[in-house]
Amino acid sequence: MILRHEFLPVDNNRLSHLCGSMDGHLRDMETVLGVSISRRNEFFRVEGPKVSAERAMALLQALYARADAPIPHEEFQLSLMDTERGRPPKADGRDTGPALRTRRADLIGRTDNQRLYLNNIQQHDITFGIGPAGTGKTFLAVACAVDALERSAVQRIILSRPAVEAGERLGFLPGDLSQKVDPYLRPLYDALYDLMGFDKVGRAFEKGQIEIAPLAFMRGRTLNHAFVILDEAQNTTREQMKMFLTRLGFGSRCVVTGDVSQIDLPRGVDSGLIDAERVLRRVRGVATTRFTSADVVRHPLVARIVEAYDIASSDRN
C-alpha cells in the first residue's frame, strides 16, 4: 500500500524536527514499522503493508503537530514503540494520568499499567509492582517517594533491597554498612539523582530525609511517616518478606518491586514476592500491578528481548 501526504502550511523547521538529524527519525520508523518512507520537501510517501503504512503515516502527522521544537530522542522512541504496538499516537506526546512533583516536570505514566501503578501507589498503603526489566517499576516508585517528600506527606524516604548477587559471588565488600550496600542500591540512587539532583540528594542524606536500610537489619523497627521502597523483592525469602511488610507504621506508604523471572535465590528457596502476591491478593489496602513487555520504556529492542525470553520460557514449560 502507498500513502502520500503533503504537510501544510509548509514549515521547514517543523519538517527538519520531524525527520531528525540526517533523516534519522524516518530511518528508525522504516526499521521498526517495516515500511519505506521517502520525501521531497513537504511531500511524503509511505509504502508498505496496509496496517504498517497507516500507522507510519499517523505517526508522521502526530510528530509534525508537535515539531515546533526539536523532538527529544526519548520522546520519539516512546512514540515509535507505541505505534509499533498499535497505540494511536498523540499530537501533544503526553498521556493523561497522575503528575508527580519532581525535578522532571514531564514525569507521568507512559502506559496504561504505569498509570494504574501510580494510582495504586497514591491510593493504597502497600503496592506491589511486578514485571520485567525496563517497565519503570523502580523509577516510578522513587518518583512517588520524592513527590511525597516534596509535599511533606512523609518525613523521610527509606530504601531497601536484599543483598543478593545476580549469579556472581562478589565476596566481602570494603567499607562501612552504607558503603557495603551501595552497589546493590545503585539503581535507586540513579533514580534519586535524576529526580532530585545530586546536591539535593546529598543534603537529604545529611538531614536523614533519605535512609538506606538493609533488609537484614530491618527486624524490630517500626517505620512511621515514611515512604518505604523494597527493590528486587523477588530475591527475598518468605520470612524476609513477612518481616519487611510488618515494619509499616503510621502515616507510611510502602512499594515493593520485583521481577519474578530474575530470581537469584538458591535452588529450592521460595521467593517471598511470589508468596506475598498470592497470600495478600484479597487483603484490603494492598494493590498489585502486573507489568508486561508492552510496558517496557527502554530501548525498543529491550521489549523484543523480554518477549523472546518469555516465549522461550513458555516453550520449556
UniProtKB/TrEMBL annotation:
Its main location: cytoplasm. The keyword Cytoplasm applies. Keywords: ATP-binding, Cytoplasm, Nucleotide-binding. The keyword Nucleotide-binding applies. Pfam families: PhoH. It comes from the Bacteria. One of its GO terms (molecular function) is ATP binding. Belongs to the PhoH family. This is PhoH-like protein. It comes from Piscinibacter gummiphilus.
